[in-house]
Design brief:
Layout lengths: L3 E12 L2 E12 L3 E5 L6 H8 L7 E6 L2 E7 L2 E4 L2 H8 L2 E4 L11 H11 L5 H14 L15 H14 L4 E5 L7 H16 L4 E4 L3 H7 L2 E6 L2 E7 H6 L4 H8 L3
Parallel strand pairs: 3-9, 3-10, 7-8, 8-9
Antiparallel strand pairs: 1-2, 1-4, 4-5, 5-6, 10-11
This protein binds adenosine-5'-diphosphate (ADP) and magnesium ion.
């Protein structure tokens, strides 16, 4: 019996001869906020894409709670069938750097469409849930707008509402603010902070170091396809042990 919401064991992924994930293991427990930091090209997005089934692992095992998504067979990742994958996809949400909203759908339809089409929720119920989540994101009254009528920060908050609507066990963020200017970044970080204070389980790839230190319980520093160092957020940011971590953090001092 464990509290693990998601765990990856010995995850490996290559693109051609480029070994992007070398041997990554991580476990996220219920209520954990995990931040992943590291230089560009270090494999952070690939890690998130493998964990959210947008890419397949070459080797390793991946589980969502009691659901084995991929199991390791002699260093090779063997994935479960369609039903297993569909079930796993209901357990996580993903928020990208570039919002990834449907441009021709209203805010309301962006949020309700997956609820109605994937979860088969009645329309009225889906709309009530969207209204509630938009209020929580500070976006009441924006239901009928289309994404291009909103600021980047508002669009990203719609994307977060859409992900939350599915009631996931864990929410992944891949650099949710790196397309935003500082003011809009603050708006988005605020809603993520609020989610953290409600103990939403989250994995956040970010370049916002002070945010990571404040919000995350644990930080992983990733470089060259490996976890170089990990630890409690304060400790990793204020007292890094490895030279690579120190060098990376010195860029943000
Ligand atoms: P990060 O998010 O830390 O910047 P990425 O996971 O995006 O790192 O990239 C890690 C490495 O994997 C880079 O060398 C990148 O070029 C390569 N890579 C990522 N996605 C693909 C892909 N779909 N095809 C080929 N190479 C890729
Ligand atoms: Mg990336």
């Amino acid at each position: 019996m464990t509290d693990a919401v998601v765990s990856l064991e010995s995850g490996k992924k290559s693109f051609g001869s480029n070994q992007v994930l070398k041997d990554i293991s991580l476990t996220v427990n219920k209520g954990d906020v995990l931040a992943i930091i590291g230089p560009s090209g270090g494999g952070k997005s690939t890690l998130l894409r493998c964990m959210t089934l947008l890419e397949t692992l070459d080797g390793g095992s991946l589980a969502y709670g009691d659901l084995a998504v991929a199991t390791d067979a002699g260093g090779r990742a063997v994935y479960g069938g369609k039903q297993v994958l569909a079930k796993a996809k209901e357990r996580f949400g993903l928020v990208f750097q570039n919002f990834n909203l449907f441009p021709h759908y209203t805010v309301m339809k962006n949020i309700t469409d997956p609820l109605i089409c994937v979860q088969k929720m009645p329309k009225e119920q889906a709309e009530a849930r969207a209204v509630e989540l938009l209020a929580k994101m500070g976006l009441s009254g924006k239901e009928a707008m289309v994404p291009c009528e909103l600021s980047g920060g508002q669009q990203q908050r719609v994307a977060i509402a859409r992900a939350l609507a599915m009631n996931p066990d864990v929410l992944f963020f891949d650099e949710p603010t790196s397309a935003l200017d500082p003011e809009l970044t603050r708006e988005v970080l605020k809603v993520i902070r609020d989610l953290a204070s409600e103990h939403m389980t989250m994995v956040i790839v970010t370049h916002e170091m002070s945010f990571a230190r404040d919000v995350a319980d644990r930080i992983i520093f990733m470089d060259g396809g490996v976890i170089v160092e990990q630890g409690p957020a304060d400790q990793l940011i204020n007292n890094p042990q490895h030279n690579r971590t120190k060098a990376f953090l010195s860029n943000y001092a």
